[in-house]
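Figure caption, in words: inputs first, then the predicted bound structure.
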Amino acid sequence: MQEKQREQAARKDRLPKDMAEVVLHLVEEVGEVCEAIREGQPREYFEAEVADVLWQLNKLCWMNGFDLERAFLAKLEKKERG
Ligand SMILES: [Mg+2]
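Bound structure (magnesium ion present):
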């Protein structure tokens, strides 16, 4: 997932430059998910907005040199023990 996203961003000259900007986009996309729920938007629309959240979150992870899936699995394991 990271490699595909990063490759596409590089190819389209859209590599993120500023972490704060990515976080702002992430928050914006979470807002769009809320809006989709509040407005009762069709499922496909809701799914696309949730994917946008993952898109920004994943970007934030690879900008900072870690893999989202690995971090998620580490958290899952920690919660299993806790
Ligand atoms: Mg969106």
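The helical segments are 2-11, 19-38, 43-63, 68-81.
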